[in-house]
Amino acid sequence: MNRQDLIDAIAAQTETSKAATGRLLDTLIQIIQSEVARGGVVKLNGFGTFEKTSAAARTGRHPLTGGPIKIPSTCKPKFTPGTAFKELVKD
Question: Which residues make Cβ contacts (< 8 Å) with residue 76, sequence separation at least 6?
């Protein structure tokens, strides 16, 4: 399912216009991204949690030479599915 398919499905189930649904989806994504970028956590009960995590600096291997390279610390977004979502997907 791509973005447009999702908009179509939401619009059909909520009986709203596709344009309004697209704006709502864009706003939802923007708010989640902004909150996580600030270091906040977005919890959607039954669905999951979006949060910012950090990865420590480490030494890796250059894929061509095999020599060591330094990989700097970084921050990444993380999604952890909720229990209800896990159970739904489990079977």
Answer: 52, 53, 54, 55
Instruction: Give, to the nearest 10 degrees, the angle between helix 18-37 and helix 3-14.
Output: 120
Return d(Cα 52, Cα 83) in angstroms, integer.
20
Residue ranges in the chain modelled with pLDDT below 50: none
Domains of the chain, residue spans = 1-38, 41-91
| Contacts with 42 (C-beta within 8 Å, 6 or more apart), sequence order | 31, 32, 35, 36, 49, 50, 51
Q: What's the predicted TM-score (pTM) here?
A: 0.81
CATH topology for the 41-91 domain? HU Protein; Chain A (4.10.520)
pLDDT of residue 81: 97
- Output the six-digit token pair for 70: 């330094």
Q: Residues 6 or more apart from 59 whose CB is under 8 A from it? A: 68, 69, 70, 71
